[in-house]
């Protein structure tokens, strides 16, 4: 009896070992490509800045303190780092606005595609994905050409006599938002479309048969059924917006920073790598919080349809 | 001197060099973007049968950080005078003794022995210039030889001013504007400087590099700028003039140095000697529009450059210029703090 149990245990051990070996490549990649570099970022955030960039290997929590607190340069008093808070707040607000507008533009687009005859849908989807063929930088420069003072939009409006002087759009927060909206809109349309494609339009007809108004049909039937698509699309737009770097840099003019630019500043001229590292981790935490909210929402109610 | 996002020049240089794919030697140059004459590179490649590869950077900090990490594969770097002592102290540069090279005799007397590289043991001049203000005089008729353009902006320019995000230069302008000495660590002055910068910032539109196009397309009407960039603007729009702040402005020089871990040392030395030849130095200047510090190069430059107001400093404003050196760490830490507060 003892022998049989021994054999069974051995088989189990072999099995476990085989599983570990088989998953080793994946684990190695996760360690070296994800967890490892991240660990370096965490370690750096607890060091002192070197004089010309890089770090001094002395333990310090200064970087973390200065994420939220600032020491006045002249009277050495501590206060809330209103500048950092302002940048965090601007980043979150702009990303939220981008998400909302992406939804407002993306929803009708996705609805339009989902209600086309089946054989033309592929073409419409294809059109949505065309911008992805071009590099993000190029698309951002294209937007710059549209909204700059002597750009397409202002020149057209002036020719039409609607305005007499160019509207200042470029180098404002609005410009950053327009840029992000343009770049991330397909990320909203695609998941929305995926949800809508599965939508049973007989339910919509049934709603009308039961004397529901158009608005009621939208609110009580369509929206609840495409909710997983809305949540997925919003997350896909919100997260990259939060960390956007190129768009605010080119369209925002570098005067009003977003989080990505603030982090870059610390690794460049700011010569404060530990602060850059701790700001990066703070960004990571915000993104994680957003994802947790997503999981909670997507986990309830969405399951039946998504 | 510093144009991010303009890889055009690098692209051209690479195109120019692609014909020499089988060249005997190699040379990897790490330089500021939009700063290296493709014709000059081509001439060097043909003369010495060397394939040159050009890589861009956008600030002294970027260059220093990248080279210090190692594994960069560059042979030549072109740091500003203000940071050369750091490069030497960090043991990153090779002592190539350009002062013994054949063409060193062409270096202008003023640049032969310099405080940032005593006796020129490591570096040779690339280009030098000033930091001042480019103003579109179609929109503003007042005095442009003052830092008030960006620190106490006139109403015509308000909301249309760009400031280059170059800490040392902007601090130099602001400190001298408030009556201080460059590199001062005097907190009383610096407090005024900070308050002035914070007060002025809402009247700026952006803090950007790469402003030639933005000025000619009228996104900005004024910008803190390098003189050569200003000359390139004037070539496209004659109304864009260059002002030398009478309160004080920095003079800078970028210098060619060979890296200690360079793989193509001999080619790099050939290049150093090559650019001290007046004809070749003129090609460098003709492209980027800065003076080069090589005597006799003027003859090979177009006449429009020899007497350009961006290059020839007016007599009465010469004294206001100070050569920019590395500030002591105490002062620099204060500047960084002010700068971070400004950029937030």
Overview in brief:
The complex is a heterodimer of chains A (306) and B (344). Chain A has 306 residues and is mainly α. Chain A is 72% helix and 3% strand.
The largest inter-chain interface, given as chain pair and residues per side, is: A-B, 31 and 37 residues
CATH superfamily of the domain at 62-126 and 184-298 in chain A: MetI-like
The computed structural class of chain B is alpha/beta
Q: From the 3D coordinates, which CATH architecture of the domain at 62-126 and 184-298 in chain A would you assign?
A: Orthogonal Bundle
The end-to-end span of chain A amounts to 50 Å
The main pleated sheet of chain A reads as: 2 strands, antiparallel
Which bin fits the share of residues in helices of chain B?
25-40%
Evaluate the radius of gyration of chain A. 26 Å
Low-confidence runs of chain A: 301-306
Which secondary-structure class do the elements of chain A indicate? Answer: mainly alpha
From the alpha carbons, calculate the radius of gyration of chain B and give it in angstroms.
Answer: 20 Å
Q: Please report the total strand number of chain A as a whole number.
A: 4
Number of strands of chain B: 10
Count, helices of chain B: 13
Strand content of chain A: under 5%
Q: Can you write the helix and strand succession of chain A as a string?
A: HEEHEEHHHHHHHHHHH
Q: Indicate the CATH topology of the domain at 62-126 and 184-298 in chain A.
A: MetI-like fold
How many DSSP H or I helices of chain A? Answer: 13
Kindly report how far apart the N and C termini of chain B lie. 25 Å
Q: Which term fits the overall shape of chain B?
A: globular
Largest sheet of chain B: 10 strands, mixed
């Amino acid at each position: 009896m003892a022998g049989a149990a021994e054999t069974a245990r051995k088989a189990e051990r072999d099995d476990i070992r085989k599983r570990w070996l088989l998953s080793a490549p994946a684990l190695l990649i996760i360690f070296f490509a994800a967890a490892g570099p991240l660990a370096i970022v965490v370690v750096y955030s607890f060091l002192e800045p070197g004089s010309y960039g890089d770090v001094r290997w002395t333990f310090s929590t200064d970087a973390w303190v200065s994420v939220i607190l600032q020491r006045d340069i002249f009277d050495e008093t501590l206060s809330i780092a209103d500048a950092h808070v302002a940048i965090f707040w601007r980043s979150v607000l702009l990303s939220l606005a981008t998400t909302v507008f992406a939804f407002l533009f993306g929803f009708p687009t996705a609805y339009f595609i989902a209600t086309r005859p089946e054989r033309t849908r592929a073409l419409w989807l294809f059109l949505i994905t065309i911008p992805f063929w071009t590099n993000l930088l190029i698309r951002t420069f294209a937007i710059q050409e549209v909204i700059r003072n002597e750009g397409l939009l202002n020149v057209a409006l002036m020719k039409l006599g609607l305005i007499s002087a160019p509207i200042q759009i470029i180098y404002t927060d609005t410009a950053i938002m327009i840029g992000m909206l343009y770049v991330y809109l397909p990320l909203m349309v695609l998941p929305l479309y995926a949800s809508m494609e599965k939508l049973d339009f007989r339910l919509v007809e049934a709603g009308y048969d039961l004397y529901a108004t158009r608005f009621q049909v939208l609110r009580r039937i369509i929206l609840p059924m495409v909710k997983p698509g809305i949540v997925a699309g919003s997350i896909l737009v919100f997260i990259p917006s939060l960390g956007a770097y190129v768009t605010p840099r080119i369209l925002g003019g570098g005067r009003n920073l977003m989080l990505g630019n603030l982090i870059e500043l610390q690794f460049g001229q700011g010569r404060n790598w530990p602060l850059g590292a701790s700001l990066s981790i703070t960004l990571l935490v915000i993104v994680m919080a957003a994802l947790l909210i997503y999981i909670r929402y997507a986990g309830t109610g969405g399951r039946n349809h998504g | 001197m510093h144009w991010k996002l303009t890889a055009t020049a690098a692209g051209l240089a690479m195109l120019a060099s692609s014909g020499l794919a089988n060249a005997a030697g190699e040379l990897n140059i790490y330089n500021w973007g939009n700063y290296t004459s493709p014709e000059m590179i081509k001439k060097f490649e043909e003369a010495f049968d060397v394939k040159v590869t050009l890589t861009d950077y956008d600030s002294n900090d970027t260059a220093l950080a990248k080279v210090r990490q190692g594994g960069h594969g560059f042979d030549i770097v072109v740091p500003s005078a203000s940071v050369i002592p750091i490069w030497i102290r960090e043991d990153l540069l090779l002592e190539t003794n350009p002062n013994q090279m054949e063409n060193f005799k062409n270096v202008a007397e003023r640049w032969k022995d310099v405080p940032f590289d005593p006796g020129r043991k490591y570096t040779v001049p690339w280009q030098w210039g000033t930091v001042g203000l480019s103003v579109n005089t179609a929109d503003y008729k007042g005095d442009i030889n003052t830092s008030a353009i960006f620190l106490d902006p006139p109403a015509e320019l308000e909301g249309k001013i760009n400031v280059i995000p170059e800490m040392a230069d902007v601090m130099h302008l602001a400190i001298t504007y408030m009556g201080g000495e460059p590199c001062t660590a005097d907190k009383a002055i610096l407090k005024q400087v900070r308050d002035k910068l914070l007060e002025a910032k809402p009247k700026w539109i952006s803090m950007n590099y790469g402003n030639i196009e933005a000025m000619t397309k009228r996104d900005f009407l004024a910008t803190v700028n390098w003189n050569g960039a200003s000359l390139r603007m004037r070539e496209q729009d004659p109304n864009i003039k260059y002002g030398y702040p009478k309160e004080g402005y920095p003079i800078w020089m970028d210098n060619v140095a060979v890296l200690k871990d360079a793989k193509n040392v001999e080619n790099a030395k050939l290049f150093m000697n090559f650019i001290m030849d007046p004809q070749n130095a003129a090609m460098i200047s003709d492209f980027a529009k800065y003076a080069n510090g090589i005597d006799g190069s003027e003859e090979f430059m177009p006449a429009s450059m020899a007497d350009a107001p961006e290059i020839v400093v007016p007599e009465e404003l010469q004294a206001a210029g100070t050569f920019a050196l590395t500030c002591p760490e105490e002062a620099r830490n204060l500047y960084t703090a002010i700068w971070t507060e400004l950029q937030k």
